[in-house]
Design brief:
It is a single chain. By secondary structure, the chain is mostly helical. It is built from 30 helices and no strands. Helix 8 packs antiparallel against helix 9, helix 19 runs antiparallel to helix 20 and helix 26 packs antiparallel against helix 27. The longest helix has 25 residues. The protein is flat, with a radius of gyration of 34 Å. The two termini are 51 Å apart.
Length: 601
């Protein structure tokens, strides 16, 4: 074991000597690197090896190369790279290969090696790496990654094509591979066409029929027809092919082929009808004339109208309405926008009346009604949809109803009755935004109802009641002062659990007083430590700082708090406590306490 380590150590001594000789590292730094690398080598010679040992060693060497590069730029010295960086890089590749041999099934090791080769432009190793990887992990995504690398980095279309063809033979039902194969052939055709443009030659001037077929993307068209045979009736896949073809300006024939196939053989689902209805809009892409856009939209709507009679479903209506909303953004004149909005509202009302409007589309409907001043209709629609099955109503719909309600000119009594109904059915944790929105409304419009609102939240999810208690204490503090907040705190502290924010807000309030009472602050900190002392070093740090800085603080308590904190906190949190306390004592007051709670604790 020791012999192997010493042999490996002797191999990288020359590069350390070079680092020291050229002035990139000092003698002490070189010895430190030697010590660290020796420690890593010993880890790799143990009988039981783990992946983390290899990766930590690799990460150390990568950091070492980065440091060398920074030193080179600072000193302006760019020689001896073969003796230094190349030697370290070769060691990294050896470590990756050893890890891959031992953990062949762990894909993360392979992907880390690929990322390293790409970053440091090790193309030769990367080519071999992809070959070895695909022999062990024959996943479609990895074949696509390898083909993409061959195309983009090596500019080798033939190799990329061969990789995808081999992958398709192994994974004949992989839709991803077929899609990427079509994309590859279209990219190749586009590349050849651009080359002709640079040479000042047009596609029409090509006399060779074979070249003309390649330039027109005939290979991709053959693949598309093969996909029709391989995946009959898969309209979703056909539409994905359509999106690929739309990215190229010479694929009109491909697009027409896909549309004609869908129209003639696969009009048995909502997606097929929607695709056919979108066809007139495709020819209007890039047009800014509102009259032409309106004509194309009318053609599209005729097909959609026929579609909703054949398929009167939520899916069909959703596709229709989303198309109308998307088309609305294309208009530029006020009259065209107004006409489009009227058409959209008409169709939204029809979908709502027929009970086929999905919950997600109520948001754009209500927004349009509010923009047009139809608050009463918006309120009626939301009342109908939320009270139809209130226990199944989504939080978004309840929030929407509150938004419309608070924007309307209803009296306080009516609004409060609706609010109580909304809160009655908002019980889960995800409905917390409903309660927070209601609390804000009460704070502005009806402060007398805040206590009743907090009492209502008692029977709901624990997270809701916790947040409402936080808001209640903060509101009492700002509206009635510290004495009222103290009284409320004594009541609420008996109703556990309390959040860290609850204690933080109250501590901040007590500390802001001119003559803050340290006895009161100690009671709050003691209560917070009982609840969160085992998981938050920040509480202990703030408590210790209080005893050190407060006029009535006691030095003996600092030692006692520190010892209790060391006993309570476990693992990394204990180390974090020591580190941050050291920084505080050395004069660093801004301690990063991310993830531990509010900075007031």
């Amino acid at each position: 074991m020791a012999e192997v380590v010493h042999r490996n150590v002797e191999e990288f001594i020359p590069e350390l000597e070079q680092l020291e000789r050229v002035g990139l590292f000092t003698t002490a730094e070189a010895r430190s690197v030697l010590k660290m690398r020796t420690a890593h080598e010993y880890k790799l010679t143990r009988k039981t090896k783990c992946k983390e040992d290899y990766l930590s060693y690799i990460q150390y060497l990568i950091n070492l190369i980065s440091l060398v590069n920074k030193r080179r730029k600072r000193l302006g010295y760019f020689f001896k790279k073969e003796e230094i960086e190349y030697s370290v890089t070769n060691r990294i590749h050896k470590l990756f290969k050893a890890a891959q041999m031992r953990f062949k099934s762990d894909l993360s090791v392979w992907m880390t090696h690929i990322a390293f080769c790409k970053k440091w432009k090790k193309n030769t190793q990367l080519s071999k790496l992809f070959t070895n990887l695909l022999q062990i992990h024959s996943k479609p995504e990895l074949w696509v990654m390898a083909a993409k690398w061959e195309l983009e980095c090596h500019n080798d279309v033939d190799s990329a094509r061969q990789l995808l063809l081999r992958a398709i033979r192994l994974h004949q039902t992989s839709k991803l591979l077929w899609r990427e194969y079509i994309r590859l052939e279209l990219l190749y055709s586009e590349k050849l066409r651009k080359r002709l443009e640079v040479l000042g030659t047009s596609v029409e001037q090509q006399t060779d029929s074979e070249d003309s077929l390649v330039l027109s993307g005939e290979a991709a068209l053959i693949i598309i027809n093969e996909i029709f045979n391989k995946f009959p009736g898969d309209v979703k896949l056909y539409l994905q092919l359509l999106e690929i073809c739309k990215n190229f300006d010479f694929t009109d024939n491909h697009i027409n082929t896909i549309y004609n196939t869908i129209e003639s053989n696969h009009m048995t689902c909502e997606l097929a009808w929607s695709a056919l209805a979108q066809r007139p809009l495709l020819s209007a892409a890039g047009i800014t004339n509102d009259e032409i856009l309106s004509e194309k939209e009318s053609e599209s709507c005729k097909i959609y109208e026929k579609a909703i009679t054949v398929f009167p479903t939520e899916i069909m209506w959703s596709l229709y309405l989303r198309s109308l909303l998307q088309q609305l953004n294309q208009y530029t004149t006020e009259n065209s926008i107004r006409t489009s909005v009227e058409r959209i509202l008409l169709k939204f009302r029809q979908a709502h009346d027929s009970g086929l409007l999905v919950p997600e589309l109520y948001t754009p409907l209500i927004e349009l009604l509010m923009k047009t001043g139809e608050l009463s209709e918006a309120n009626d629609i939301l009342k109908a949809v939320t009270m139809k099955e209130p226990t199944l109503t989504t939080t978004a719909l309840w929030q929407l109803r509150l938004d419309v309600l608070f924007s309307s000119s209803h009296n306080i009594s009516y609004t409060w009755d609706v609010v109580r109904t909304v809160c009655q059915y908002s019980e889960s944790q995800v409905s917390l935004p409903v309660w927070l929105k209601t609390f804000e409304w009460c704070n502005v419009e009806c402060p007398a109802k805040i206590e009743e609102l907090v009492q209502m939240s008692k029977t709901k999810h624990r997270e809701i009641y916790q947040r409402m208690k936080d808001k209640y204490l903060h509101w009492t503090l700002s509206s009635s002062g510290v004495k009222a907040a103290r009284k409320l705190y004594k009541q609420l502290v008996l109703e556990k659990p309390l959040s860290l924010d609850f204690y933080g807000n109250y501590i901040q309030a007590e500390s802001s007083l001119v003559n803050s009472d340290i006895k009161q602050l100690r009671l709050i900190y003691d209560e917070a430590i009982r609840d969160y002392g085992h998981q938050s070093p920040v509480i202990w740090l703030e408590y210790i700082t209080l005893e050190q800085t407060h006029a009535d603080g006691e030095a003996v308590r600092v030692t006692r708090l520190y010892n209790n904190a060391r006993k309570t906190l476990k693992g990394s949190m204990n180390a974090e406590l020591i580190t941050k306390l050291t920084l505080i004592q050395s004069g660093h007051t801004n301690i990063d306490c991310e993830g531990d709670g509010p900075t007031t604790l």
